[in-house]
Amino acid sequence: MPSVIDIQKYSIHDGDGIRTSIFFKGCPLRCAWCHNPESQQKKPELLWNREKCTGCGWCAEICPQKTIIMEHGVPLLDRERCTGCGNCVIECLESARSLSGEYKTVRQLLEAGEKDQIFYEESGGGVTLSGGEVMAIQPFEEIVELCRGFFEKGISVFIDTSGFAPWERFDSILPYVTAFLYDIKAMDPETHKKWVGVDNKLILDNLRKLSAAGGDIRLRLPLISGINDSREQIEAVLKLLQGGIHVRKIHLLPYHDIGKNKYARLGREYNEAALAPPTPEHLEELAEILRQTGVPVVMGG
Amino acid sequence: MAVQTATTTQRPKEVHGMNDRVRRLREESLNTQPRIYMERAVLETEAYEKYEGTVSVPELRALTLLHYFSHKTISISRGELIVGEKGDGPQSSPTFPELCCHTLEDMHVMNDRELINFTVTQEDLKIQEEKIIPFWEKRSIRRRILDNMSDEWKTAYECGIFTEFMEQRGPGHTVGSEKIYLKGFREYQQDIHKAMEALDVLHDPNALRRREQLKAMDTACEAVIVLGQRYAALAREMAETETDPQWKADLLKIAENCDVVPAHKPQTFHQALQMYWFVHLAVTSELNPWDSYSPGRLDQHVYPFYRRDTEAGILTREGALELLECLWVKFNNQPAPPKVGITLKESGTYTDFANINTGGIAPDGTNGVNEVSYLILDCMDDMKLLQPSSNVQISRKTPQKFLLRACEISRKGWGQPAFYNTEAIVQELLAAGKTLEDARRGGTSGCVETGAFGNEAYILTGYFNLPKILELTLYNGYDHVAHKQLGLQLGNAEDFHSYEELLEAFHKQIDYFLDIKVKGSNIIEKIYAEYMPVPFLSVITNDCISKGMDYNAGGARYNTSYIQGVGIGTVTDCLSAIKYQVFDQKHFTLPELTDAMLHDFEGQPRMLKLVQEHSPKYGNDDDYADDIMKSVFTYYQKAVTGRPNMRGGMYRVNMLPTTCHVYFGEVMLASANGRRAHKPVSEGISPEKGADTNGPTAVVKSCAKMDHLQTGGTLLNQKFTPSVVAGEQGLQQMANLIRAYFAMDGHHIQFNVIDRQTLLDAQAHPEEYKDLIVRVAGYSDHFRNLSRALQDEIIARTEQSFS
């Protein structure tokens, strides 16, 4: 059963029209700038909000697994043993606890996505499967079933993906999917490996195949100053596109740090110092390069 | 800094804007302190002293209007192109001692209160004490009403179970038709004379009453004609000595217009607007009807004049806009006459709810949007005035451009225009027995109330406090706030062993209080019919002349009485929390819950959290809660609809609060959904504050589960931060949200685009803003879930979200 972080309705910046975005939990990549760190692990995770916690110790007392111990008024969680039962979420009087991730059946997801069909039809919208990495969900047959389920109800499906998954998976959902929001995080393999954690060969191969198969692709380029925003990197994207890959739109996504306090809630470190957005002038320069493709280049979304 | 939105195209901005004349008039309107104007009360007393006892009651009322319009101070403000004020200038409000004779203490309170105050001078107090109180104290309708109400009615009224609209203001909620643009009052008089000649004195036992009524209507026409003549004369007199050539020419134009209207039908666009304004003044000077008076479908009514004048080359688009803007200032110059006591609590505002419906469909069912419709949108956008309430009707046939332009204005965040669903309005009217053509001519007035414009007296009788009645049900009918036994004794919390038993008791209490309310309203309707007829309003409301019957006595073609249900969101969440926590989950017992409610959940943080955060809530497209909403609504609607009123029509419901949800909350304990003691209940059909956490599509879907077509209007307030509706995407999807809600038969939606101040408040009181969604950067999130630093950042940029 897939684990889902959030089902966000009235999502109007992830694809066309009014959409419902389903954020799956679990991702094979580890981008240094990830703003949804809670989407990386598959299993449900407990979040703790330091600003709300009064250190009363009630969560430690009522935890059925006894995975929380109080130290200097701070609840420390043994994440290995935490089962994500959610008891402390209900019991915490300050609402300092929340649970990220809930297992959902395909039927539940279909019903959730179907609820806003009237809005999709009015606006040309639909459902966006996002993450985490939806293409990495296992067993993937459930995602195929989900895509086909929406397709059969007449609901458009967008896939928001890093492209890091076996090609067969793309191939299996292609008949049911309207469009792909497809990331290129870096063109240079070394840079990619260093900041994303994996090689980008599979991603670029899949992109070529997807284009050849006639997929509607909206390319997204996250841009982090000094890491993947050099002229060379972007010229390489241009070259790739000019080499016969057809995309409908190119989105430039400058870095933002809104995910940073989520790391603290997960009890993790965040390498903040290395990360910054490109300057607006530089962004414009990069956009200008990409406009040579003749494809619309937009900021954000 | 992240880029906010994916804006690819920029729509060209319409070129308009106020000219200097309009700017000055608007400033004058906004900067003038509202004040009491005693001349009306004085002249009315004179008229009563002169005529009372010598003529019938309707004639007395008409002669009073004639006396007032013949002798009141009139003035023309420099630069204005539409003339006429209710008082002696902008923001001057007459009093209506025949309805509510203010005590000296009332007058002091009006002057001293912090909000909605009116300046009262020593001279005003002296007049009130020496002339007005001695004459009117024992004659006022308010006094007559209170003398005739039962003890049960008075207790329920004082404890906030329901309110009574007619206690200080007359029946109204009335909207004009296109007739006044096709017929002058001399012609109306001819119709009246014909009706008098046609009276069947041989057989009709009511012939004398009809003749008295018709004579009164004839005199009322004379009154407004006299007012027009006086304005024509004043303009000429001012023009004679005026040296500024522009103003002199304007004054002569005013004189020329007032020679024609209101005695004769208007010939030009300018005269058409002036005609409306004289009618507005006459209706609101004759009596003080709730929600003043409204032009209704103004764009359709005046479009023929606009077309003719622009084709003839005597009017430009800019000229027409200037005239509309001058009319807008006139509306804004008239504060709702001062209210006191509970009436002030249920409607604490200067706004008098004159409501203009723009767009919609024409009587033949075709698209009703025309060039004047777009001009009115520009006018709203330029003026940004609270009065008139400027709204749009959106039908399936409405051009997308019109809807988008309306959204563009609405998202600026000052609440106008609100959006009404034409197809829903038509079906609501058909369900209430109107003809298709009358339904298509209809619309909404006041806040959201549906009516057959020009043909219907649809009168709001008062608000009905649904959550308070549930509260009483839980305590054996005993009111722990007022310390009185108010309701039926059907058992305490421990006596209800199932949700169904509780619901059954709740239903019985609803019936009990509705009976009390309706008995009171029936008597009040009769009091107005007998003692406070409105001959002028009767002239312009269809069928009153042919029937020889007053508007207040059932003369209109259709006669509806509305009872406005308040707090559906709160009452739903209370029942949901009880059903889920007490009967399903058994987290605590009903007596434990009612005990905690008595103590405002003091010492019960766990219980409070369970009901507040872990119970199903209305507004999330969750059938658990929404089915409860449907059951409460349906019960209430069926319990009201079809009861006969005293004017030949029937009672129906609508679901709106004005400011009554605050008052209704004040009289309540903490409630089962975790709403704290004395805090407001939910407004309109909107979810309880903070209960909706799944975004606007979930809200409108929950709301659409109510059968809007069985009502006479519902009100939904949707909050947004500016950035959610920013950019081309934000605008397009806002329009699509409206279309989808209307496809599901939603009646009305308005947008509250959250400003910086609200965000600051949300930061200080996150528990009250759980539903607040903000656009962050490429995605949206709940404001409460953001770190302090990010909240600060969003607050900092909120004001720049619109260029």
Structure description:
The complex is a heterodimer of chains A (301) and B (803). Chain A is built from 11 helices and 13 strands. By secondary structure, chain A is of the alpha/beta class. Chain A folds into 2 domains: 3-41 and 104-299, Aldolase class I (TIM Barrel), CATH 3.20.20; 45-100, Alpha-Beta Plaits, CATH 3.30.70. Chain A has a 9-stranded mixed beta sheet. In chain A, helix 3 runs parallel beside helix 5 (141-152) and helix 9 (231-242) packs parallel to helix 11. The model of chain A has no long low-confidence stretch (mean pLDDT 93). Chain B has 803 residues and is an alpha/beta fold. Among the domains of chain B are: 141-169 and 458-525 and 561-715, no CATH class; 760-803, no CATH class. Chain B contains 31 helices and 16 strands. In chain B, strand 6 (443-445) and strand 7 (449-451) form a beta hairpin. Chain B is globular. At the A-B interface, strand 1, helix 4 and strand 12 of A face helix 25, helix 28, helix 29 and helix 31 of B.
How would you sum up this structure in a few lines?
By secondary structure, chain A is α/β, with parallel strands linked by helices.
Key features of this structure:
heterodimer; A: 301 residues; alpha/beta; TIM Barrel; Alpha-Beta Plaits; nine-stranded mixed beta sheet; two-stranded antiparallel sheet; 13 strands; 32% helix; 22% strand; globular; B: 803 residues; five-stranded mixed beta sheet; three-stranded parallel beta sheet; 16 strands; disordered N terminus
Layout of SSEs?
The complex is a heterodimer of chains A (301) and B (803).
Chain A: E1 3-11, E2 19-24, E3 45-48, H1 58-62, E4 68-71, E5 74-77, H2 87-91, E6 97-100, E7 102-103, H3 106-114, H4 117-123, E8 126-130, H5 141-152, E9 156-161, H6 167-173, E10 179-183, H7 189-196, H8 201-212, E11 217-223, H9 231-242, E12 249-254, H10 260-265, H11 280-291, E13 297-299
Parallel strand pairs in A: 2-8, 8-9, 9-10, 10-11, 11-12, 12-13
Antiparallel strand pairs in A: 1-2, 1-7, 3-6, 4-5
Chain B: H1 20-31, E1 35-37, H2 39-51, H3 57-71, E2 92-94, H4 104-112, H5 122-136, H6 141-148, H7 151-158, H8 185-197, H9 207-241, H10 245-260, H11 269-286, H12 298-311, H13 317-332, H14 341-346, E3 355-359, H15 371-383, E4 389-394, H16 400-410, E5 418-421, H17 422-431, H18 436-440, E6 443-445, E7 449-451, E8 456-465, H19 466-474, E9 478-479, E10 484-485, H20 499-531, H21 535-539, H22 544-547, E11 558-566, H23 568-584, H24 590-598, H25 605-613, H26 623-640, E12 650-654, H27 660-666, H28 696-704, E13 717-720, H29 727-743, E14 748-753, H30 756-764, E15 773-775, E16 780-782, H31 788-798
Parallel strand pairs in B: 1-2, 3-4, 4-5, 8-11, 11-12, 13-14
Antiparallel strand pairs in B: 5-14, 6-7, 9-10, 15-16
Helix pairs in contact in B: 1-13, 2-3, 3-9, 6-20, 8-9, 9-10, 11-12, 11-13, 12-15, 13-15, 15-16, 16-29, 19-20, 19-23, 20-26, 23-26, 30-31
